[in-house]
Amino acid sequence: xxxxxxxxxxxxxxxxxxxxxxxxxxxxxxxxxxxxxxxxxxxxxxxxxxxxxxxxxxxxxxxxxxxxxxxxxxxxxxxxxxxxxxxxxxxxxxxxxx
Length: 98
Known about the structure:
Layout: E1 24-26, E2 33-37, E3 46-51, E4 57-64, E5 68-72, E6 79-86, E7 90-97
Antiparallel strand pairs: 1-2, 2-5, 3-4, 3-6, 6-7
């Protein structure tokens, strides 16, 4: 027998909290639209940059002042993208489009 505690049988319920440095992208992969969620209680102005794997900027969205932004697929091709929200803080994430 081992003296190491077996954690497989323990369950824990935790409430989901948004980390102030976290960017949530849901749903991901994006089919038609996705929602970006980040901490912005002061409603500062942010710019959204969407870049392909080579670093080329594919889209810029200015004037984001809420903590949630709905991003439409539009002309984004199928693939993998880096997402960056630039403002007083910088939030980064990854996005897959189908």
